[in-house]
Amino acid sequence: MNQAQTTTAPGPKTATEPGPAPSAEPLLSVTGLTVRFRMRAGRQVAAVTDVSFGLAPGECLALVGESGCGKSVLASALLGLLPGNARTDGSALLHARGGQPRLDLLTADEPTLARTVRGRRVGLVPQSPAGHLTPVRTVRAQLTETVRELRGLRGPELAAATVAAAERAAFPADHLDRYPHELSGGLAQRAATALALVGDAPVLLADEPTTGLDRALVDRTVDELRGHTADGRGLLIITHDLAAAERIADRVAVMYAGRLVELAPAARFFGTPGPRHPYARGLLEALPERAFTPIPGMPPELDALPAGCAFAPRCPRADERCATRPEPDDGLACHHPLVPAGTASEETHA
Ligand SMILES: Nc1ncnc2c1ncn2[C@@H]1O[C@H](COP(=O)(O)OP(=O)(O)OP(=O)(O)O)[C@@H](O)[C@H]1O
Ligand code: NI
């Protein structure tokens, strides 16, 4: 979506900016989101730090980054699903829509989240579907209940809508009467996706929705998720699968050690001139169809982060400036970007 491709956090745009009116206000504005886990002996895990982004109507934003960088914690924070030892800061405004009021997801109380947000205003495809499916009930029973609750259907209509909901996520109808433990990982994933799609929530968070699926099913699943953004809904997809992100995303957000280090239009990120942050470039170059060269080293521990740039110890371009943490600017937090600011726009076709 063009209107969403230029800013780190699409706040309210000025009247002089072009773009269709419906995108003037994002669906979701996350500002300075920070999550800390309090551990024993005064230890603290900095899982998410000062993350800001917006999700525009009709937009698909892909959130990528190595394991443990805070992606799922970010999603959990948006749904009020963090454990008791977590403390959040910042805001995550879910804007007014369809008669529903504006709401800060970080401060909303549990009854509000349970009754009006989860599944209705913000859907979730969870990272571990097995843990989110009820073990003692068949997939059909769970899907039927969700369709009844969220769509208000009864009788034959309900039965038909349940089968259609399964079909939407490529969950085979002849497996509907199985219990979660009777499903493969890929089928459990599809059941969870089917459940998450039922409510047609304005914002859908999909946390690794394609784990355990083969390429054809990955494509089918992400296309279905992308289809969710019709009618001005938004999709935040968390994925390790950069090919899937390239297939469906409008923008890509790259997270490292709890922070967003780059936020870029997908066309620019995957095409020319490519990622601007050395870490983002490294992620892309690690792909088999690219250089197939992994980034050396490991991400830092989140309870002992360095004062400067957290990527510096692994960065081929690091220098003395990196002892100071780079402030995010124009969708990038790096002292020595691969593509200098101002040259990253569409006219750069070297
Ligand atoms: N309840 C918790 N208490 C303490 N630390 C936690 C808790 N939950 C998550 N963490 C830590 O927060 C960090 C971020 O975890 P998160 O699950 O968000 O990573 P991720 O980016 O989703 O990784 P993956 O790609 O493997 O799913 C990790 O270091 C993890 O150990
Ligand atoms: Ni995760």
Automatic annotation (TrEMBL):
Keyword entries, A-Z: ATP-binding, Cell membrane, Ion transport, Membrane, Nickel, Nickel transport, Nucleotide-binding, Translocase, Transport
Catalytic function, reaction form: Ni(2+)(out) + ATP + H2O = Ni(2+)(in) + ADP + phosphate + H(+)
Domain ABC transporter: 28-282
One Pfam short name: ABC_tran
The organism's place on the tree of life at top rank: Bacteria
Membrane-topology annotation of the record: Peripheral membrane protein
Stretches the record annotates as Disordered: 1-26, 327-350
Catalytic activity, EC: 7.2.2.11
Record's keyword annotation contains Endoplasmic reticulum: no
Subcellular location: Cell membrane
GO cellular component, one term: plasma membrane
EC class: translocase
InterPro entries, per the entry: AAA+_ATPase, ABC_Ni/Peptide_Import, ABC_transporter-like_ATP-bd, Oligopep_ABC_C, P-loop_NTPase
GO molecular function, one term: ATP binding
UniProt GO BP: peptide transport
PANTHER family per UniProt: NICKEL ABC TRANSPORTER, ATP-BINDING PROTEIN (PTHR43297:SF13), OLIGOPEPTIDE TRANSPORT ATP-BINDING PROTEIN APPD (PTHR43297)
Similarity annotation: Belongs to the ABC transporter superfamily.
Subunit (UniProt): The complex is composed of two ATP-binding proteins (NikD and NikE), two transmembrane proteins (NikB and NikC) and a solute-binding protein (NikA).
Protein name (Swiss-Prot/TrEMBL): Nickel import system ATP-binding protein NikD
Organism whose genome encodes this protein: Streptomyces cacaoi
The organism's taxonomic lineage, starting at the top: Bacteria, Bacillati, Actinomycetota, Actinomycetes, Kitasatosporales
